[in-house]
Amino acid sequence: MKLHAPLLPLAISLIIGITLGGYLDNWSKGFYYLTPLLLISCLLRRFPRCQTVGIWGCTLVLGAMLSSMRGQQLKTKWPQELIYQEVVVTSEPVIKEKVVTFDALTAQHHRKIKCRIVRDEASEHITIGEGIQILSKVTPIHQWRQNHFDYQRYMQCHNFAGETFIRKGYWQPRAVSLEGFPLIEKARLRLLRLRHRLLLHYQQWELGSQVYGIIAAMTLGDKSQIGTELRDIYSRVGATHVLALSGMHLMIIYVVVTLFVGWWRFRTLSQMITVLAIWFFAFLTGLSPSIMRAAFMITVYALLSLGYRERMSVNTLAFTAIIMLVINPFALYDIGFQLSFAAVLAIVLINPLFTTIIPLPVLQRHRWLNIFWGLTTVSLAAQIGTAPLVAYYFGRFSTYFLLSNYLVVPLTTIILYLTLTCMVVFWWSSLQQLLVMSLSTIVSLMNLLLSHIAILPHSSIENIHLTTLQLYLIYIFIGCMWVIGSLYRKNVQNLTKC
Hints:
CATH 2.40.50
């Protein structure tokens, strides 16, 4: 058994460094450790193994410096009194019972803050990309914990520097210039405005609230319209992954674009267009950690396909993690980031162990068995990778996850293709109406089936309490089982050859 992933130790070193970044009170002090480590690594060229260890040490220190730097950037000294500020709304406002909540960027320092405005008729009509002037007191993110969920760290993961409560009459619409904003924020805001227009287009289809919420989440990453009850149903049956845009959704986009440009003679140009389309969609849907991970991996997948190399591996996953953590070190603490990487790592490593249970000739002779077995093994592998984290953060284990995946994976694929088709045939109203009716029926059917699964006896094991040590021990046990399974698989393959 040999795991060829030279970037994996670097990714692990970077992760360890990020976790230690809190002990570095000033990121520049990291140079006291980084400089001698770099010099020692350069002097150890005749001793490759020692030099490799030195490089790992440099990566660890770099991770600590990046983490400390990001923490210092997010620490903002806000005035203690009410102040006027111009902000730009950067998320779809969520209307609650008494308040309207949304994310915003301040025009002066481009700091991201969480805003809560007292609900009234005017605040209900605030839209994404709109500029407003507020009179309020901005405070640092407050500390709040539930089980293992750390609210303050969660907000830091998403680059929030503060939060504010705005009273009725203490705000007004104001045209805010984007001239001083970073280029990437300008692009992101423009695409989010486009997403808002697409969501308005969805609303013109006159879908039910539950159907609209599911379609908006699956296709454009807006989960704000999914009710608490429906969200809990998906959570109980282990199907929340279809609501969070991830690799499955982007691979469908990849396949669709490839169908149009894949036949071109200029493979490099066709892959570039495909990658641009993937990143356009990623920005359009808000650049969540799971969608960023998927976009990076598909980009690497597309580039490696030009050289006909192994496209999906642990090394590719490690490279993606390094890039994402260098961009945002606090992404490490995001639950979506952890679940996304745990699922893909488990699929890459554990799925091959399952696929050998049924001989390949049998699968090749029976196409539907091959599809069914592939869905089963991928679901099992992903569940093994993510179940400990789900139990750790949410205290829950879904016992019917396989049954749910047999339903939601094919239905989600159909829903995504149907939604895309509905958007394309906007000029043919009668056909679009027919497709929208079919789409609504399929989504309603999926919700109904999942709600029936959710009420089955013992559909979800609740109130699981794992300590951090227990979480680590579970993953160590899974790693040991993977080593044993890999050795057994290798021995079986050797015996088969003999």
